[in-house]
Amino acid sequence: MAKVIIFAGGFGSGKSELAINYALDRSQYAENIILADLDLVNPYFASRYVRDLLEASGIRVLAPAGDLSCGDVPGLPPEIIGFLRGNDEIIIDVAGDEVGSMVLGYLSRYIKDSDYQLYLVLNPYRPFAQDLDSVMELRLLLEGAARLTFTGLISNPNLMGETNPEMIRNGHQIVSDYAQAMRLPVCHLTVEEKFYHDLVCEYGTILQTITLYLKPEWMQ
Amino acid sequence: MEKILMKGNEALAEGAIIAGCKAFFGYPITPSSEIAEYMARKFPKIDGVFVQAESELAAINMVYGGAATGHRVMTASSGPGISLKQEGISFIAEAELPCLIVNVSRGGPGLGGIQPAQSDYFQATRGGGHGDYRLIVLAPSGVQEMMDFAIEGFDLADRYRTPVMIMAEGTLGQMMEPIIVREPVIQFYDKPWATNGCQGREPNIVNTLHLSADYLEERNHHLQKKYDAIASREKRAESYLTEDADLVVVAFGLMARIAKKAVMEARKSGIKVGLIRPITLWPFPDAEISKAAQTTKRFLSVEISMGQMIEDIRLAVAGRVPVDFFGRIGITPNPEEVFRAIMQVAEREGI
C-alpha cells in the first residue's frame, strides 16, 4: 500500500516549500520517495523548478514534463496512478484553493485506499486565513474539490523576510484556535531554521524547520 | 501597523477595493487570474459586482458601461487579452471614462508563453488601439506598490477622466511580500457627466461617434490638451546614484529592483553606475533621463523584452550619448546577469 502525504491549502500558504522540505527530509531515511507536483493551475513558484535538487537526493519527481512544465493546462503525469497503487511514499503538492485541489478529486479513488495524510496548510498572515469563517469555508471548498477529508493542519505562520518569533507565536496561536474549532490536530509548526532555538522549548516535536527553495535570490 | 502577506495580484485587487472600486469585468488569463478570483470572492460580500464576461471584448465594453455610470470599475488581463481589449480601450479614452486596466504581462508575440515579460511596453505606451489617445501607465516594482498604484491609478483616472493602465510583470503578480493594507479611500470626485439617472436635468450622453469633421477635430484638440496637462504634471521616476554616474542603467517594474542590486554590486567594484526607474511609462519621465544625459557617458536599458523602452530613452537623450541594451524574454535576468552586462559595457567603454 502506498503512503501518501498531501499538502493542500489556499494560494501562497506555503504548500510547495513544505512539500519540497518534507521530501528532502524523508529522502534521508527512505529510498522510494516520490514528489508529485500536481500544480496544474499556474507554473509560477512550483516545486518542479527544483527538480535537479530533488533528484540529486534520490527523489523521483512526477510533474508536467517538457514544455508542459511551463503550461497552465491540465497535464497530469500519467505514472501517478500506477504509483498510487504501489508501495512507495508519495508526497503530493497541489496548487492553491479549490481549483488547485480539484486534481485530488480525480485521484481520490486511488488515494482513499492508501495510507494517506491530507494536510491543510495555513498561514494566518495570508488573506482568507485571518478568521475562522474564512478558514472553515476554505476547508469545505477544498474537501469538496478533493473528495477527501483533512487529517490535520500545518501551521506555517510567516511574513517571509519580516517574520520574527513573536509573530510566529501569535500566528500559531491563531492556527491552534482554528484547529480546536475544526476538531483537527495541528501536526506541524513550520519555521525557518533561524527561529528553531527560540521556539523549540515551547513547541517541542511539532516544530519543524524549513528552508526556502523557491524564493528568488533577489527577493532576499 | 500590522502587515499581511499578499501576492501582487491580491494586493492590486485589494487596493482597487480600498479605492472604492465597485465592479470588475474580466476574462481569466494566466498570470493575472488571481485578480479576478479575488474580486469574485470579495465583491459578493461588499455589495460589488463581479462579472466573468464571455470574452475580453465583452469585458472591456462592460467597463465602458460601468464607468459611464460614474462608479469606479476595472478589468485585468495579460498580453493576449489586452490585445483583444484595444478597440474598447480606444472608445473609453475618447469617451473620457475613468477606469483601471491591469496588464499582468507575459511574453509574446502571439500566444507566447506565460512567463513574465515587459514586451507589452509598446502596446501600453503607444496605444494598441486606433486614434490619437494615451493611457497613463504605471509600473509598480513590488507588492506594496501593486496595492498603492491601484489606489493612485483610480485617483489619476478620475482626476483626468482617462483610463489608467497598471503594467506589472507576471512574477510581480504571483510573488508574495508582506505589505501594509492602506486605509479605505473616502473622498471621491464629483462626476456630473455620469449617466446615473437624469431626473431634474438634461440627460448625459456618453458617445464616441463624431460625424462632423469640425467637432471631431475639436474633440481631438480637447484630448490632446488633457494629455499635455498629464505629461507636464504626472511624469514620475526614481533616480539612484546618478549624480556622479558614468553609466546610467534604466529599468522599470520588477526589473528595476533587480537592476538596483546589480548597480550596488557594480559600485562595490568601483564602477560609477546609477539607476533611473521610470514609474510612469506614459508620460515617460524624459526630463530625468535628459538631466542625466548632461553628465553621464552612457545609458544601458535593461528590459524583459527585445528592447522597447530603449526608444523612449533615445528620444529623451536626443543623441547626446549612446544607449546600450540588455534584455531577455521568458526569463527574468537575475542581478548577476545584469551586473555582468554592466561590467561588459564598463570594460568595453573604459568606464
Query: What form of chain B results from the Cα inertia axes?
Result: globular
**Strand arrangement across the biggest beta sheet of chain A:** 3-2-4-1-5-6-7-8
Number of self-contained structural domains of chain B: 2
What's the CATH class label of chain A?
A: Alpha Beta
Query: What is the number of strand segments of chain A?
Result: 8
Number of strands of chain B: 14
CATH topology of the largest domain in chain B: Rossmann fold
Would you give an account of this structure?
The complex is a heterodimer of chains A (220) and B (351). Chain A has helices at residues 15-26, 51-56, 79-84, 97-111, 132-146, 165-182, 196-203, and strands at 3-9, 33-38, 60-62, 89-94, 115-122, 152-155, 186-192, 207-210. By secondary structure, chain A is of the alpha/beta class. Chain A has one domain (3-219): P-loop containing nucleotide triphosphate hydrolases (Rossmann fold, 3-Layer(aba) Sandwich). In chain A, strands 3-2-4-1-5-6-7-8 form an 8-stranded parallel beta sheet, sandwiched between helices. In chain A, helix 4 packs across helix 5. Chain A is globular, with a radius of gyration of 16 Å. With 351 residues, chain B is α/β, with parallel strands linked by helices. Chain B folds into 2 domains: 4-195 and 205-233, Rossmann fold, CATH 3.40.50; 237-349, Rossmann fold (3-Layer(aba) Sandwich). Helices cover 42% and strands 20% of the residues of chain B. In chain B, the strands form 3 sheets. A 7-stranded mixed beta sheet of chain B has the order 3-2-4-5-7-6-12, sandwiched between helices. A 5-stranded mixed beta sheet of chain B has the order 9-11-10-13-14, sandwiched between helices. The longest helix of chain B is centred in the middle third of the chain and has 21 residues, at 213-233. Classes of the chains: A alpha/beta (220), B alpha/beta (351). The interface between A and B is medium-sized, with 26 and 29 residues.
